[in-house]
Amino acid sequence: MNWLSQDMPFGVSPEGRGFVKVNKELEPNSETGKKLFAEKCSVCHGADGEGQYNADGTYLYPAVAGDKSFNDGAGMARTYTAAAFIKGKMPFGQGNTLSDQEAVDIAAYFTHLPRPVKANKDKDWPNGDAPKDVRR
Question: Which of 22, 74, 94, 98 is most exposed, with minimal Cβ within 10 Å?
Fold first, then answer.
């Protein structure tokens, strides 16, 4: 794993690391998110969110929905976690160009598309204290 930080000064966080903050009080609108996804995301991730792949099966742009995507227990399956990533990093090469509401709406749309189901997901929040954006 040392190669990940190769040529990085010790104790310095690389530019672009981490997520930006989004307003978690915003109400997600998945219908608006569907339109925004088609407009701003589908060129890379595909109309159905299933990504784009090279002939050898490696991805050019990762799936955000479907069988090759992350499962419904992953952090990116949470609306506000995905929105924070989208806000700071997407569209590719144009991070921080979407509003918080646009990022939340896009996340609300694609995080609820079909994807693999995490085994034993019911054990993730045994005390019933799941955050409001956890996919049920």
Answer: 94
